[in-house]
Amino acid sequence: MFPRFITKTIHAYLDYPVAFGLVAMPFLFGLGADNAIAFWLSIVTGGAAFVLTILTDHHLGVIRVLPYALHLAVDGLVGVAFVAAPVVFGFVGLDFWYYMILGFTVLAVVGLHQPEDRQATA
Predict the structure, then answer these.
(1) Where are the alpha helices (DSSP H) in the chain?
(2) Domain spans of the chain?
């Protein structure tokens, strides 16, 4: 079994840069040249991730109305959606690899998340 080392605190520090990156990377990498969905999916997801982070009940959340478990569940769904998107929408080239790599990375982060009961004792 893999060690689960990503704590709620580490995850919170990753959230804001990831949200901004999801908005910026389509411009930087020129995503969506063959399929506009590849461009907009990242931007919309980045905006939603930013709002989700602001609303999450963790130390970097601003309003803190959503439970952290819901945040993790949404992250997991985003990972699955990003892995499925290239197949469903027919992405090719950089668009394909961008979503595959990000999707599996998000799933890894969620999968390596340390359960909160272990965090309290660590």
Answers:
(1) 8-29, 36-55, 68-89, 93-111, 116-121
(2) 8-116
The pTM of the whole model exceeds 0.70: yes
Sign of CA dihedral 19, 104, 69, 8: negative
- Per residue in 21-80, pLDDT (tens digit) is 999 999 999 999 999 999 999 999 999 999 999 999 999 999 999 999 999 999 999 999
Integer Cα distance of 94 and 92 in angstroms: 6
Nearest-angstrom CA–CA distance, 61 and 29: 29
Mean predicted lDDT score pLDDT of the chain: 94
Closest CA to 24 of 74, 98, 100: 98
Asked whether 36 and 29 are in contact (CB, 8 A), the reply is no
